[in-house]
Amino acid sequence: MERKSFELGDIVQMKKQHPCGTNEMEIIRMGMDIRIKCVGCKHSVLIPRAKFEKNMKKVLRSKASEEGQQEEQGT
Ligand SMILES: [Zn+2]
């Protein structure tokens, strides 16, 4: 099992599409609940971490790894 890792400022792809048509969200606040902002319409929602992890498909752009451009590689 791989554990999803995400950080503040990451752009993530959600499994469910937002009504505005995009499924990309930016993490703008982390805590017990996570606040994400829709990249398309700038609407922000607060959702429990467990639900977020379940609904998140993958991290599209990580703020932390922007410089390195390193892709995760399984061996
Ligand atoms: Zn939206």
From TrEMBL:
* Pfam families named among the record's database cross-references: DUF951 (PF06107)
Kindly provide the name given to this protein in its UniProt entry: DUF951 domain-containing protein
The species this protein was found in: Paenibacillus nanensis
Lineage, uppermost ranks: Bacteria, Bacillati, Bacillota, Bacilli, Bacillales
